[in-house]
Amino acid sequence: MWFNDLGFSENPFDDSARHKLAGNENIMEDIIYNINAGNIVFIEGKPGSGRTAILKKAIQSFMGFGKVSFVECQKIKDLNIEDVLKGKYNFIERIFSKMPNGMIVLMDDAGELDKKNCERIKYFYDQNYIKSIIFTGESYNKANFTESLKDRVKKVIKLNDLKEYESLDILNSRLNGKQLIPDDVAKEIFERTDGNPKKFLNACEELCKTIAETKEEKVTLEHVNKLLPLDKKRSVEKSTEKSEKKNAGKKKEDGPVKEEKPEDLRVIYEDAAERYY
Amino acid sequence: MQQRGITKMNIWYKELGFYNNPFSIKPMAFHDEVIGYDLDVVFNKIDNGEVLFIEGDYGKGKTTILKKIIRRFGGKKRLVYYSCNRTASSIDFEKLIKNRHGFFSGLFSDDNNLILLLDEAQDISQEDSEKILDYYTKNFKSIILVGPNFDKIRFGNGLSKLISPNVIRLGELTEDDAINIIRKRIGHTNFMQDDIIKMVFKKSAKNPRRLLKNCEDVCRYTIDQGYNKIKEEHVKKVLG
Questions:
Q1: Quick one: CATH architecture of B39-169?
Q2: Which of B219, B215, B205 is nearest to B179 (CA)?
Q3: End-to-end CA distance of chain B
Q4: Better-predicted residue by pLDDT, A124 or B97
Q5: CA dist., res. B30 & res. A210, Å (int)
Q6: Residues of B with Cβ-Cβ distance to A32 under 8 angstroms
Q7: Complex-level ipTM beyond the 0.90 threshold
Q8: Which of residues 131-170 of A touch B (CB under 8 A)?
Q9: pLDDT of residue A145 exceeding 70
Q10: pLDDT digits (tens, 9 = 90+) for B79-92
Q11: Which domains does chain A have, with CATH numbers?
Q12: pTM
């Protein structure tokens, strides 16, 4: 395998939970606290920003208590939370149709939950069958939650884009300090993957594969250009575009969207954003 | 190896000597919550077989009252709980009544004198609200509906008449209520004094659930900063 050639026993860029989180280390502490305290949290972030990685970390932290349910909402068509929770129990317990107690539920891509399940979740949470819930999704405001469930959400955590130094940090820990990708090259990769951790790691993986095949020592700018082509003109254009987009996005966030939000949601939302970042 | 999340850090409520989060917003967590309303009135009305409507905004304690009713009247398969926003289609009352039992006991049970709890009643269809009346005379002894605003729901005429004398509005949380709630949860500790609770209350829009959430945040912040008493500046820092 290519990573053996580079001196690794495992693929350093896989998405298993043993790795350091990309840039969101301090969020983890907050999430573990909220799970312990029995709260509902919504993690908001773009695809690839590390939502699932956080859930995987959470599973790792609470593993072995038989209390954690991980649900991928998109994969299950006729999702019934009740069945998911009871499925955790063994045969005999199911005969007595006992409801589990104090479950920790992690729901990936929860934006599409239907009303029926929202209502079930609310009920089970109120009954303490469910102790705490971590939802993830692209946008809390667009999530299909019922108002009564939304009101129970303690906090919305927003995943930020990767910062440059964080990307270097991640790379360093993934490669165990090996200088396969020099810093200036890594910065270039970072620039071209829009601060998205998943894209960044995937690009690094591809690049390392190529140098393993060609038996080169280091990833160079040429490799990067081949994988993520970007001539100078375009790069200038793109960077201005990007900054424009960023500004536009910011304006949107600050401006009209806020006004649409109902009072109390806004409070939670802003709290989450301001207090912890 | 990673350390287990549970032992990893100091959790504020454990430092204060609680095993669980004392400010949990789950209605089941604490039995004797003050809600600013005399529950015996509600119980009496249920005993007399009336139709009630409990009105209050999100987080005002509707579910808490429901839970109390369940605690008081539950256990004998006499209660049917249903949340109206579960389906877009109409409610199948026959099924609801039969399904409260397992299959076998269902065959031999008598289906009269039941109590129906309808959560999220704002989502009930007009058709259903008329159907309820038939079942009210036949199966249900008492019906309790719960929703944010009675005036805005279009019930059938008959049901409206039955309900209108029995609308229970959950009052606004007063400062004293707030102090009572918090004291019941954490006791009379020096850590959080009355004036601090008052301060948090002012930031909580008279909403019990918001109050609990805010108290949790303030306590957590204070302990994390290493103080053993909440000061005004902590509240300001956390709640703005």
A1: 3-Layer(aba) Sandwich (3.40)
A2: B215
A3: 39
A4: A124
A5: 61
A6: 5, 8-9
A7: no
A8: 146-148, 151-152, 154
A9: yes
A10: 888 877 766 667 77
A11: 25-159 (3.40.50.300), 163-230 (1.10.8), 243-277 (no CATH)
A12: 0.73
